[in-house]
Amino acid sequence: MSSDQTSVTGPLRIGVAGLGTVGGGTLKLLQEQSELLQRRCGRRIEVVAVSARDRRKTREVEISALRWHDRAEALATDTEVDAVVELIGGADGAALALCEAALANGKHLVTANKALLAHHGTALAQAAEAAGVNLGYEAAVAGGIPIIKALREGLAGNRIEGAYGILNGTCNYILTAMHDGVRSGQVQSFETVLNEAQRLGYAEADPATDIDGIDAAHKLAILTSVVFGCPVNFDAVHIEGIRHINAIDIEYALELGYRMKLLAIARDAPNGIEQRVHPCMVPENAPIAHVDGVFNAVVVKGDFVGTTMFEGPGAGAGPTASAVVADLIDIARGQMVPTFAVPAKSLSPRSFAPMAKHVGTYYIRLMVVDRPGVIAEIAACLRDQQVSVEAMIQRARDPDEAVPVVLTTHEAEEAAVTRAVAAMAKLGSILETPCMIRIETL
Ligand SMILES: NC(=O)c1ccc[n+]([C@@H]2O[C@H](COP(=O)([O-])OP(=O)(O)OC[C@H]3O[C@@H](n4cnc5c(N)ncnc54)[C@H](OP(=O)(O)O)[C@@H]3O)[C@@H](O)[C@H]2O)c1
Fold first, then answer.
1. Which of 1-5, 155-159, 328-332 comes out lowest in average pLDDT?
2. Does 6 score more than 70 pLDDT?
3. From the candidates 107, 114, 219, 261, which is the catalytic residue?
4. Which of 39, 126, 267, 384 lies at a C-alpha separation of 20 to 30 Å from 12?
5. Residue 2 pLDDT > 60, yes or no?
6. 20 Cα: distance to centroid of ligand 1 (angstroms)
7. How far is the CA of 94 from the centre of ligand 1 (A)?
8. How does pLDDT run across 301-314, given as a tens digit for each residue?
9. Cβ-based burial of 67 (10 A; exposed 0-12, middle 13-18, buried ≥19)
10. Which residues line ligand 1 (CB under 6 A)?
11. Confidence grade of residue 8 (pLDDT, cut at 50, 70, 90)
12. Which phi and psi (to 5°) does residue 408 adopt?
């Protein structure tokens, strides 16, 4: 951490673009904690200018005394702004233009924008480093949990073997509610729980980015870069969401001693770095199995520290503002840490392992016609791909209806399991598309 003493004089003057959930929360925190922050930084953090889309909109925070810019990019050339805070959102457009202009004009930059960093993180880190300014993005990964600070500073002495976590509160809320429904005997479908999440404000009107795993993948791509010191590579993330998760699979997960979670996993595997976001079954006795509702958690395995877990609120005005302000405090104190834990020019490209090469254990559920010989046909599909069965459950017997057959496998390569499942899908006795879910031993 270097200390740029020349800039640590007078107040840190900031310009905030975006006055929505996070922008409003950030202004509120800065107003309410202004004295505390002054004591902690030795100087004031002062908002001098703002920008948003609609100047006439009623805001929960008082902004009448602040300079208003219709164009966010104007904050980048405002000579009275030392640090720009981008809280607009979106991978490109106004957010990107503002961030690039801020760095080009030698302003410190703080952003909560994971989509932007997942797509342009490396270039922005290079630009920040060339300009000798901070690029803070604590709020972009796991909201209020200070995981970036933990990785870049507290755990910096460790070689990190891997990190995994629950990085999307919406998905975790939905899976938790479905699990609670199964436990209480009031089974709820994915759609019912999603509608309820939307009503409660835990899911967006257009929930695709969250429930299809994209938001978690944005955060994972950033985490991977910090953990392994490589350029951000969002395209290398394998992404599956939770739309296809069925209450019956949550029920079987419980019976087998697991909980269903959407995990984001970065792991140094024999075939390269695995970056994957997908629903999986995790052992019921793993601490992460009990991170419920909208909470997030990140587990980091370091060679000297061992396993650490960070848990907390992953979104919302207060937690996200807390993370944004933590970055501003670093700037106000003149503390500078390389954006992705190593200088941007020494980020070294790594090869990423294709999902087909992943080796793990699998849960497979089939809806079958209950007649003699069906199990032998299924077993043959697995045998042909050298996949061995660890356990099998076939409970109900009903000659008139499809009955579930559940299998778990021993360790196998994903490509082989996928081929076996594809062969099963073609059997005349299989009535629905088979469901395959990875089991993580963690
Ligand atoms: N919400 C969370 O809990 C959370 C958590 C972590 C990270 N984040 C990230 O934080 C960022 C902001 O999210 P949010 O939830 O605060 O979004 P939001 O509530 O939708 O607010 C977006 C703000 O950006 C303004 N805006 C839109 N287009 C603009 C433009 N072209 N120029 C200037 N301002 C513009 C909007 O102006 P108007 O108000 O005038 O419409 C609004 O104030 C996103 O990158 C998001 O991914 C959010």
1. 1-5
2. no
3. 219
4. 126
5. no
6. 5
7. 11
8. 999 999 999 999 99
9. middle
10. 17-23, 51-54, 57, 72, 87-89, 94, 112-114, 139, 143, 315-316, 320
11. low
12. -120, 150
Interacting residues of 210 by C-beta distance below 8 A, sequence separation 6+: 168, 170, 171, 203, 204
- Domains in the chain and their CATH numbers? 2-144+319-344 (3.40.50.720), 149-313 (3.30.360.10), 358-439 (3.30.70.260)
Locate 347 and state its tokens.
């980020």
Q: Are strands 272-283 and 238-239 parallel, antiparallel or unpaired?
A: parallel
% of the chain with per-residue pLDDT over 70: 98
For atom 5 of ligand 1, the residue with the nearest CA is 315
28 is catalytic: no
C-alpha 337/C-alpha 2 separation (Å) is 7
Cα→Cα distances 249→76, 83, 206, 214, 323, Å: 51, 49, 25, 22, 36
Count the residues in the chain: 442
Task: Write out pLDDT tens, residues 356-387.
Answer: 999 999 999 999 998 889 999 999 999 999 99
pLDDT digits (tens, 9 = 90+) for 115-135: 999 999 999 999 999 999 999
CA distances from 417 to 137, 421, 432 (A): 39, 6, 17
Say what the pTM is. Answer: 0.96
CB 324 within 8 A of CB 83: no
Counting ligand 1 atoms within 8 A of each CB, the residue from 50, 54, 87 with the most, and so the one to mutate, is 87
